[in-house]
Every structure is written in structure tokens, then in C-alpha cells.
Design goal:
Blueprint: E1 7-11, H1 19-27, E2 32-34, H2 39-42, H3 44-52, E3 60-65, E4 67-70, E5 73-76, H4 80-94, E6 98-104, H5 107-110, H6 117-133, E7 137-144, E8 163-167, H7 174-187, E9 194-197, H8 208-211, E10 218-219, H9 226-234, E11 242-246, H10 250-258, E12 263-264, H11 266-283
Parallel strand pairs: 1-2, 1-11, 2-3, 3-6, 6-7, 7-8, 8-9, 9-11
Antiparallel strand pairs: 4-5, 10-12
Helix pairs in contact: 4-6
Length: 285
């Protein structure tokens, strides 16, 4: 089982990459940072290294490889050579060894690679395993927005990642949660090796958060805001030891850190998952 409090990871997906965001995170005790080669118009690593190079050693840093600049915008590739080169470039830009490097959304390329998609996934995972063996990163993982394709591809030929990053929270559907469970079993991952991302489904200001009250999932839920409750329960949908969340506002990040004191009603979470499964079955009956 995961500990009571998941680790908060500051995600830079939509961030402006301002130095004050990093100093604010450190002030709150948030010392994990997640980015990607394609964030900030493929400039995330360079900007971080230039504007906050002295701060970066205070963080554990994860990044993702898989998207590359193309003639018509971003293009996706699982070519092992391109992935390995991207890891090398990330280390150079950031000026330090990476803690985790993820294969970014492998499903993007795998859907078009049948019947060789398993071989492609294995080769991509092997490339990152080699990067870790060479000391470019401490560990490697798989980050997937839609993991539904992946469980059918996992066997002994596909290396086991150290970390799996997937969507988390109340807006994640039954199919995604079941696919994550299948991956966790196939790779033998503990919940501390699972990271959740996008706990609000993109925005805390979406109308859905005015229509539902996530505080029902917490003991003494009225002590918390709806946003705090949604964030707190995200680490149980699915079970995750870390939650990646993006914000440029210190106050918002502080509110989420404070939410970690909330106690989740596991029975309510399990009932919610049963309702999701029943609804999913009814839709396809």
C-alpha cells in the first residue's frame, strides 16, 4: 500500500517556467519537478537550465521523450536512436543527471505500428533502460495518456519500467482505470511506482467542479474546498504514490499541499469505481 500522503510533483505542462514558480514550490516543500522535451514549444529544458540552473539541483527532475519538432508541428517517434539522443540533449540542457525519463505517450505511435507494435514498444523501453545504465538518468518509466492499448503488449520481451505515469482523478473513466490496473499487475509495480497526472482533467475552473462535490470522498470533508478534495482523492483513482499537478500560482500549490492532510474514505472510492464499471458495462450492453 502507498503511504498516507502522496508526493506532490510540480508539472510544467502549461507553465510559463518562471523562476518564482520554482522558488515558491521549494518554499512549500515541493522538491519534485516534471517536464518534457516538447513543453514550452520544445524549449522547456533550455529555459530551465538558463533561468533556474542553480535551483535545479534542489529538485528531483523527471522529463519525457517521444515528441520531436516536425515540419508540421510536433511529431511522435519511438525510434530508439532518437529517444536516446533526446535524453542526452536533456542532460546537457539541464546540466545534471535526470532522476526519471519517461517514454512519452507511446500509444501515439503504437496504434499505427501493428503488427509490430510490441517490438516497437520493447525497443523504446530498452533504449531508455540503456540510458539509465549509462548514467544519463537514475530510472526510466512510461507516461501514457491513454494506456488502453498497452496491457495486451506486455510480456517478457518488454522491459519493466521503474515508474508508470497515468491520468488520475474523478474524471478518469473505468476503461482507463482498468487498463492501469492491468499494467500494474503485468509489470509487478507497487503503488509507489505509479504516478498520477492531470488530477483535475485540465482545469479547476471547469463547470464539472461546480456540479459535483468531491468532499464526500473525505472524512471531515467540509474542512476542505472542492478543489482540495478532488486533488486528494486523485491519488486513489488509481492508487498512486505521486501526483503531478501544474500551476504557476504559489497560493494554489499551497492549497493542494494542505489538502494532503485529508483522509480518504477508501470504501467510498471503491463504491465509486463499482459505479463506473457498471455504467461502462451498461453503455456497451
Amino acid at each position: 500500500m502507498c503511504g498516507a500522503d502522496p508526493r506532490v510533483v510540480l508539472g510544467l505542462h502549461r507553465s510559463r517556467h518562471e523562476r518564482r514558480v520554482l522558488t515558491g514550490a521549494l518554499d512549500l516543500g515541493v522538491t519534485a519537478l516534471d517536464t518534457s522535451t516538447n513543453y514550452l514549444g520544445f524549449r522547456s529544458h533550455q529555459v530551465l537550465g538558463r533561468t533556474a540552473g542553480d535551483l535545479l539541483p534542489k529538485f528531483t527532475i523527471s522529463t519525457k521523450v517521444g515528441y520531436f519538432p516536425g515540419p508540421d508541428g510536433a511529431e511522435h517517434s519511438l525510434d530508439p536512436v532518437r529517444l536516446h539522443t533526446a535524453v542526452e540533449q536533456a542532460v546537457e540542457d539541464l546540466g545534471q543527471q535526470l532522476d526519471v525519463v519517461f517514454v512519452h505517450n507511446p500509444e501515439h505511435s503504437l496504434r499505427n505500428a501493428a503488427p509490430y507494435n510490441q517490438h516497437l514498444l520493447a525497443a523504446a523501453c530498452t533504449a531508455l533502460g540503456e540510458a539509465a545504465a549509462q548514467g544519463l538518468c537514475t530510472a526510466w518509466g512510461v507516461a501514457s495518456w491513454d494506456p488502453s492499448l498497452l496491457p495486451s503488449l506486455i510480456d517478457a520481451t518488454v522491459p519493466r519500467p521503474s515508474v508508470l505515469m497515468v491520468r488520475a482523478g474523478l474524471l478518469v473513466g473505468a476503461g482507463t482505470l482498468e487498463a492501469v490496473d492491468a499494467l500494474v499487475r503485468a509489470w509487478g509495480l507497487g503503488c509507489g511506482e505509479v504516478w498520477g497526472m492531470s488530477p483535475f482533467g485540465g482545469s479547476t475552473s471547469a463547470p464539472v467542479w461546480d456540479r459535483i462535490d468531491p468532499r464526500v470522498f473525505l472524512r471531515e470533508g467540509r474542512r476542505f474546498s472542492r478543489v482540495q478534495a478532488a486533488f486528494r482523492v486523485a491519488s486513489h483513482l488509481p492508487r498512486a504514490g505521486s501526483i503531478v499537478v501544474g500551476t504557476d500560482e504559489r497560493a494554489h500549490l499551497g492549497e493542494l499541499v494542505d489538502a494532503l492532510t485529508g483522509q480518504v474514505e477508501e470504501r467510498t472510492v471503491q463504491e465509486y469505481r463499482r459505479l463506473l464499471r457498471d455504467r461502462s458495462r451498461d453503455q456497451f450492453a
